[in-house]
Amino acid sequence: MKYYVERNGDPPTRHTVFYNVAEKKAWCECCRFAFSTILCRHVLSVFLLAGVIMLPEPCITKRWTKKAKSGPELIGLNVGNGSGSADSTASRYNDLVRDAIKCAEKGAVSAGAFRVAKEVLRKAFVDIRGHGEKLCKDALHSASRR
């Protein structure tokens, strides 16, 4: 299910929340849960509207349990294949941050390295934005065919 959560304020804001009833998962375009593992108010308001009175299990991460101090948790990492690929948004985000920090460390060494790093990051951002726009167009196209 797709919900639009709006706030009439200055400026007015609108967030899209997707709620999968079967899997009991909800995610918002603000990506707060992916970055901080804290549910945003947009998802919480959808839970209220949908009549969910207890947080579903997928919304409770190890960070908020008694097991949080038992050691590091590799959330969604496929350790066995050695590729470092991740299943969860938070894991992918953390992996990208580590790579960006490595790029920044190497790129800050000299002016030439800085220019190369900036150009590589600019190209990557353009490619990622193009990929996101293609996904949106594909989704709109498939929705219009229904």
Automatic annotation (TrEMBL):
Which spans are transmembrane here? Answer: 33-55
Q: Which GO terms describe its molecular function?
A: zinc ion binding
Q: Which of UniProt's keywords are assigned here?
A: Membrane, Metal-binding, Nucleus, Transmembrane, Transmembrane helix, Zinc, Zinc-finger
Q: So which residues are the signal peptide here?
A: none
Q: Name one GO biological process term.
A: regulation of DNA-templated transcription
| Keyword Metal-binding in annotation | yes
The SWIM-type domain covers 19-51
The keyword Zinc is assigned to this record: yes
UniProt subcellular location:
Nucleus
Q: Write down any Gene Ontology CC term.
A: nucleus
Give the protein family: Belongs to the FHY3/FAR1 family.
Role: Putative transcription activator involved in regulating light control of development.
Q: What name does the UniProt record give this protein? A: Protein FAR1-RELATED SEQUENCE
